[in-house]
């Protein structure tokens, strides 16, 4: 059985008792980390999860609350005597800056004993990894930066992970719920959606005509903290056929 472990559930601003965005999808002896907000390494250790089970890291975009824990994760893999390669899927614009950053702190390819494979999301429409078909779709989360600075930068992605037994969509960060249109063309068993950049009601109205088995709400805006129960009630009223849960760090969700 597949399972999602919530490594970190905070939004962009630090929250007591919560790490930043990071989720671990486990399938038997394979695991994929979706985003690597800090302190994901410490959270995995506290949960008793071996670093060596991580086969790949999927980065939805470059914001620090989604990438800030990656260097420490790589150091933890090194100190755990990792030998097998680590594949990191990411927006192509991040590849060279990431390598420069890692080399600057002695964690780049010249320093660690295992291979880092950086794969740009822009390279393919679909990727195969760990028995999954991974489909990235660009979102409008970073559109304002793109308009301001241009140069083809500022890519942000939602991810659909398909297995013979399930279909999961991870929203990443969105400009609006309509960014999920292509990912929700077909029914999904589980949607993991952020709630930091639009009102909950906007998401629930958008999802109402779509088939979503489970809805896992994460990355809540600071002003929504303490309102979790009312948010779930609102979601259930709009989405009576969907099982709705708000994340907390350490939560385990069967797929």
Written overview of the protein:
The protein is 22% helix and 30% strand. It has 7 helices and 14 strands. The strands form 2 sheets. The protein has a 7-stranded mixed beta sheet. The chain starts with a strand and ends with a strand. The mean pLDDT is 96.
What distinguishing features does this structure have?
255 residues, alpha/beta, Metallo-beta-lactamase, Chain A, seven-stranded mixed sheet, 7 helices, 14 strands, globular
Outline:
This protein has about 260 residues and is of the alpha/beta class. It has helices at about 40-45, 65, 70-80, 95-105, 145-150, 200-205, 230-240; strands at about 1-10, 20-25, 30-35, 55-60, 85-90, 115-120, 125-130, 130-140, 155-160, 165-170, 190-195, 210-220, 245, 250-255.
Quote the average pLDDT.
Answer: 96
- Described by the principal axes of the CA atoms, the overall outline is globular
| Low-pLDDT ranges | none
Q: Please identify the structural class as seen in this structure.
A: alpha/beta
Look up the CATH topology. Metallo-beta-lactamase, Chain A
CATH architecture: 4-Layer Sandwich
Tell me the strand order in the biggest sheet: 6-5-4-3-2-1-14
- Determine the CATH superfamily: Ribonuclease Z/Hydroxyacylglutathione hydrolase-like
Q: Work out the number of β strands.
A: 14
CATH class: Alpha Beta
Total number of distinct structural domains:
1
Q: What is the ordering of alpha helices and beta strands?
A: EEEHEHHEHEEEHEEEHEHEE
Counting H and I runs of at least 4 residues, what is the number of helices?
Answer: 7
**Radius of gyration using CA atoms only:** 17 Å
Q: How would a textbook summarize the main sheet?
A: 7 strands, mixed
How much of the sequence lies in strands comes to: 25-35%
Helix content: 10-25%
N→C terminal distance: 7 Å
């Amino acid at each position: 059985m597949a399972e999602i472990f919530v490594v970190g559930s905070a939004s962009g601003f630090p929250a007591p008792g919560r790490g930043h965005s990071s989720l671990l999808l486990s399938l038997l002896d394979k695991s994929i980390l979706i985003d690597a907000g800090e302190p994901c390494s410490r959270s995995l250790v506290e949960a008793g999860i071996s670093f060596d089970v991580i086969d790949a890291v999927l980065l939805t975009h470059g914001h620090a609350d989604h990438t800030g824990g990656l260097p420490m994760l790589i150091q933890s893999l090194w100190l755990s005597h990792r030998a097998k390669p680590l594949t990191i899927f990411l927006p192509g614009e991040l590849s060279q800056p990431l390598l420069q950053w890692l080399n600057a702190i002695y964690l780049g390819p010249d320093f660690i004993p295992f291979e880092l494979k950086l794969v740009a999301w822009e390279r393919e429409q679909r990727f195969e990894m760990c028995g999954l078909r991974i489909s990235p779709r660009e979102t409008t989360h970073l559109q304002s930066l793109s308009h301001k600075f241009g140069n083809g930068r500022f890519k942000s992605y939602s991810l659909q992970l398909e297995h013979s037994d399930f279909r999961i969509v991870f929203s990443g960060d969105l400009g609006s719920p309509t960014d999920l249109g292509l990912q929700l063309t077909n029914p999904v068993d589980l949607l993991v959606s952020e709630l930091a950049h639009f009102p909950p009601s906007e998401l629930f109205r958008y999802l109402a005509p779509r088939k979503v088995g489970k809805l896992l709400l994460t990355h809540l805006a600071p002003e929504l903290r303490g309102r979790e129960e009312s948010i779930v009630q609102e979601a259930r009223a709009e989405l009576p056929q969907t099982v709705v849960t708000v994340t907390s760090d350490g939560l385990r969700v069967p797929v």
